[in-house]
Amino acid sequence: MTTTNRSSLFAGATALLMPVAIGMIFFYAPLEKTMGSVQKIFYFHLPLAFSAFLSFFVAFVAGIMYLRTRRQIWDARLAASVEIGVVFTTLVLITGSLWGKPIWNTYWTWDPRLTTSLILWFIYASCLILRSAVEEEGKRATYCAVMAIVGFVDVPIVFFSARLWRSIHPVVIRSDSVGLESSMLITLLVCMVAMLTFWIGLYKFRVSLQLQEAAANELLNPKN
Amino acid sequence: MKDTFLIIAYMAIWIGLSGYLATLAYRQKKLSLRIEILNKRFKAEEE
Fold first, then answer.
1. Of residues A13 and A5, which shows the higher confidence score?
2. CB-based contact, A15 to chain B, within 8 Å
């Protein structure tokens, strides 16, 4: 099966799963007592955050593998996952702010979870800027690999920030339990699967695009 | 009031994700054009 076919397979699965997930959010999951309808942002806010973490983990692994092997495929994987991770983190920050306004009465507060998430966004956004700034292929890939590896340190900090420090951000998944009613949990799991399917399709498409662009550039400007 | 924030958040998610997909589709289209130019160039060189 080719990469394009696999991407189409995941695109098809996403097209089936997303309407189911949205239907469950609005017609199956109950209304939360204190927050009301705005709590429904959560069903996409958390899967987006989880997918962003997954992106940065893939970038971290790809960074290590690139430095070890110097193979272009790892740089393509790194570039794809960092870009997707930045897009997803941007959406996490936006949806979080829109959720925060009616609940905390502010769009933004310098809470540990929010601050570390913003730092995460800055780290990987600067990695993207670096990619477009450095022209030499080898140097660009090396710098980005180092940045993706070092930047990954912030991911566990973001995850544990609400647990380690005093935070107003809710902690849903604890070590001993999940603070959700069963119908809410089922909806969340469906949304999570839908978002992961979308992420895999997007990632495969983005990696193949990156490789094709590199091959076309190589043919247009051949190295001597 | 809360419904408005919910609608804006979901709009942001879908505009963001579909915008990103549209950008990738545009890049793919641009790449196809580039490959077509390369093909023509190679054919011309062969002839």
1. A13
2. no
